[in-house]
Amino acid sequence: MCMRKLGRWTEALQNIDSALRLNPSHAKAKVNKAICLAELSKIEGDLHKRKQNLTEAHQLLQAAVYHPELSQEVEPILQKVEMLLEYYR
Fold first, then answer.
1. Backbone torsions φ then ψ of 83, nearest 5 degrees
2. Which of 11, 54, 57, 67 is the 20 to 30 A CA-CA neighbour of 4?
3. CB proximity list for 8: less than 8 A, separation 6 or greater
4. CA-based diameter of the chain, in Å?
């Protein structure tokens, strides 16, 4: 989380992936991963990789939106990711 707040998206993503290996069902970690992927897509030069990151972020957020404790946080992020995906289609 700290790396994410510092804008160190690649490092944050590595840490989140490590956490998800220990607990693959951790919903908040999946949301954090989606946020990192969405942010990385903004700076990714390769259009295919950008779309790939956004697609994965979208899938993670769609699953997380059904968690009552996360739905308020996830909904606006999901909307932004959907807008970005639509833009790159």
1. -65, -40
2. 67
3. none
4. 35
